[in-house]
Amino acid sequence: MGLLIALGVFDLEGLEARMRLGVLTGGGDCPGLNAVIRAVVRRSSRRYDSTVVGFLDGWRGVIENQAMELDIETCRGLLPRGGTILGTSRIQPYSNPGDMDRVRASLAAQSVDGLVVIGGEGTLSCAAQAFEDGLPVVGVPKTIDNDIALTEATFGFDTALGIATEAIDRLHTTAESHDRIMVVEVMGRHVGHIAIRAGMAAGATMTLIPEHPFDIAAVCESLTRRHEHGKYASIVVVAEGAKPIPGTMDIAPDETDEYGHIRLGGISNRIAAEIERRTGYETRVTILGYIQRGGTPSPADRVLSTRFGVAAADAVHDGDFGQMVALQQDRIVRVALSDATAELKLVDDGLYDAAREFFA
Ligand code: F6P
């Protein structure tokens, strides 16, 4: 099989049950990555007597053929451990000419029959393209943002939601004691899944998400009304990708990182300054940042990661490439990577409508 991959061809005819799998973790780290790796290794080795090689630092390890052997022993103790033992990066093989040839060469050198790609939107889009180009890949949806389509959940989201909810719960006391407005910024680059659910779970006064651009004047009017008439302090939850309605508030131009990703994290400072100026109430900011994706996965994420890892190993052994494992109605299914990465999963209108009932 490895040689066939090197030639850009993979033939499913006569595929033997025993295989050699590759696995990589790409994009931002996320609670549950290690649990997926452990499950891929466990299923592959116990059910199929297969072997697994882990590529280091996402696609970089495949491009440069940097890898480590993974077996049941190396995966001991991984289930609750945050981060990824393989390391991760946002490097993608389509950014540099010649890197896809290096990817093919590494997979051949490692005799890999199928590659499990664990990642978010960027990493999985790359996997979808790689499949179109003849690589035998299976995707696993990872991201605390929960924005991958065709799966009801990505692993990491539940942990981040729990951390954000607990943080907002704790901010209530300062808000109430000082009669302040507390602005809390959570992650959510293009979508507001963490913000809307954490806001709802922790009784936020208002939640601003990318799907619904805000009008700062309307936000400040309702906060003032709440403080003056309701005599109650406020907590405003802001997704880092939240945007004002064009023309209603000046914001700093977006900066990008070395991979061309917009560098977010900070809109809440601008919003808080504007709220304080317009309402006259003391306003303070808390940016949760990387705390949301650090540390041990929640029980729900440990279970989801484990189920995804087992299902991904099965998909590879079935030769069902170009698929992503997904959660639908509490069952693990396979969906086409191209469909899953065609567009992002946004916050559902019904959920937003229910949350809005509790605004201000
Ligand atoms: O995609 C997951 C995520 O945590 C986003 O919520 C956030 O915007 C981004 O990663 C941060 O990326 P980086 O780790 O490159 O700063």
Question: Your description of this structure?
Answer:
There is one protein chain. The chain has about 350 residues and is an alpha/beta fold. Helices cover about 40% and strands about 15% of the residues. The protein has twelve helices and 13 strands. It has helices at about 1-5, 35-50, 60-65, 100-110, 120-130, 155-180, 195-200, 215-230, 265-280, 300-315, 335-340, 350-355, and strands spanning about 20-25, 50-55, 65-70, 115-120, 135-140, 180-185, 205-210, 235-240, 255, 260-265, 285, 325-330, 330-335. The strands form three sheets. The protein has a seven-stranded mixed beta sheet, with helices on both faces. It has a four-stranded parallel beta sheet with strand order 7-8-6-11, sandwiched between helices. Strand 7, helix 8 and strand 8 (about 235-240) form a beta-alpha-beta unit. Helix 6 (about 155-180) packs across helix 7 and helix 8 packs across helix 9 (about 265-280). The longest helix is centred in the middle third of the chain and has 22 residues, at about 155-180. 6-O-phosphono-beta-D-fructofuranose (F6P) binds near residues 187, 240 and 293. The site of 6-O-phosphono-beta-D-fructofuranose has 11 residues, from loops.
* Share of helix, binned: 25-40%
Distance between the ends: 60 Å
Q: Strand fraction band?
A: 15-25%
Number of helices: 12
Structural class comes to: alpha/beta
Bound molecule types: 6-O-phosphono-beta-D-fructofuranose
Q: What is the number of strand segments?
A: 13
Query: Low-confidence parts lasting 5 or more residues at pLDDT below 50?
Result: 1-15
Radius of gyration: 22 Å
Mean pLDDT: 94
Order of helices and strands: HEHEHEHEHEHEHEHEEEHEHEEHH
Spatial order of strands in the largest sheet: 3-2-1-4-5-12-13
The largest pleated sheet is described as: 7 strands, mixed
Gross morphology is elongated
